[in-house]
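Bench log, entry 3. Co-assembly request; chain sequences pasted below exactly as received.
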Amino acid sequence: MRYFLLTITVLCFSFSGLQAQTKLPAMDKSPMDMSYYPNRYPILKIQDQITEPLVARVIYSRPQKNGRVIFGELLEYGKVWRLGANEATEIEFFRDVKINDVKVKKGRYTLYGIPNENVWTIIINKETDTWGSFRYEEKNDLLRMDIPVQKQAEITEEFVMDFEKTETGAGLIIAWDTVKLNLPIVF
Amino acid sequence: MPIKKGLLIVVSLLSAGVFQSCEQHANKVTVKPDNQRIPVSVNDSMLLSIDRSPMDMSYFPEDYPKQKMMTPDLPNPVARVTYSRPQKNGRIIFADTSVTQNVIQHYGQEWRLGANEATEIEFFKPVSISGKKIAPGRYILYCIPYPDKWKIIFNTNLYSWGLHVDKTKDLAEIELPVIKNNVEIEFFTMFFQNATYGCDLVMAWGDMKAVMPVNFN
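Structure output for the full assembly:
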């Protein structure tokens, strides 16, 4: 019986492997996107209009609200969330910056969030190139920062991240449904 | 024996089906047509709705992030491509300059091998392409299509938008024959697949496909 089950398992895996090889990647339901600081850096670059050096880039996927209540229902409060969909969300710094008074060296990191009603925890983690938050490990955290939720009257249908200029550097805006956050990046 | 074998196949097919439908269930967000989407408001400007040609990413080894999720201490990936996926939408993908209507791109002109931001490829270890060594790091890729071949060019003008190519930053180029697909591919697609010498970067759109061999050494 044990061998029988083993054979089935092996067959299942080889079958899905075969499928994966012959099937082209489908269009994602939650498409990927990227944002830069300075904003629109790639366009400014080809127009020769760059006035500030490249600081940061975020690559994330964009789930849609689709009539659902997102925070506290679809996504449970207090649980680590991948801040997007599919591949884990990647933030890259092209120079050293500071977040929550912690030095963040130039390089790639994974971003996670722990949603709560009034205050979220944003996590910068050193494990990159992974999927979702399924293998999230606290021991690989570089830093955490609590960010107050700014409730919005207007609904954001598609999860979005973008940078905005601030007096001390830039803010990473994170918005979905009626929630908006601003993670301060100092440089 | 044949009965047992048959049973095994049926059970495997069923289980594979269950795996697949679980995967589909987990992603069952439906995309609304453009005109029904509410634009996002950030900084009081109407910004950043989902791109018409959404971005995507492929790794080698294939599905690396999913493998990493399941396998602790997986060695680093070898390559990653980040590109955007335009849709054919009933148009002619490539044609000569005599065709001016409903055509996406003319032969012999630079094409960003995707849409929006320039297509980016990153190697996490040294590789060679068409006999030329490529150091670990990031590059952008663009293409000059011809009826029978695609010229794929590595360029170092990173973090740029794909509509303008700075040819002074070309690094290496390779000519690849155009292979006819037997299926029509609506969305431009790039992915890596295993090869005896390393991997292939497959680029496919419409009824065309080009395959770039990447040697690990």
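Chain B touches chain A through 60 residues (CB under 8 Å). Helices of chain B lie at 2-26, 64-70.
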